[in-house]
Amino acid sequence: MGKIDPERQAAREHGGCLSPEQRAARVRAAFEAKVVLLETWARDGVPQASSVPENQAELRRCTGPAANFETWADPKIESRIVKHPELAKRFHTAIIRIKAQRARSRSN
Q1: Which of these, 17, 38, 42, 48, is most buried using a 10 Å CB contact count?
Q2: What is the pLDDT of residues 37-59, one digit of tens each?
Q3: Gyration radius (Cα) of the chain, Å
């Protein structure tokens, strides 16, 4: 499992939890990290034994290859029309490219 960042550790040690703003920032950062990873895989190929989240529910639960990505429960996070439409569009584009890449490699 990945390391806990100092901000989160401090919140735990002081008996509190992350503020809504801190949580929102962490979730957005996790969403962006997942999208960047998928874009890299769409460009360079998916490593063997790597699991690709192919829909929004899988994206929410995905912890990444090193199991260090945040997860979230709110489906509005990755919706194209609510909280982060630009990241949602990039996610869908990366998945389309990964699927096309897989189809090409199967036909060769």
Answers
A1: 38
A2: 999 999 999 998 889 998 989 99
A3: 16
64 contacts 34 by C-beta, under 8 angstroms: yes
**Sites in the chain below the pLDDT cut of 50:** 1-2, 14-15
pTM: 0.77
Task: Kindly give the residue spans of alpha helices, DSSP state H, lying in the chain.
Answer: 6-13, 20-44, 56-61, 85-107
Query: Is residue 98 situated within a structural domain?
Result: yes
Q: How many domains, the chain?
A: 1
State the CB neighbour count (10 A cutoff) for residue 97.
15
For residues 79 and 88, the answer to whether their CB atoms sit within 8 Å is yes
Quote the domain boundaries for residue 98: 23-107
Number of H helices, E strands in the chain: 4, 0
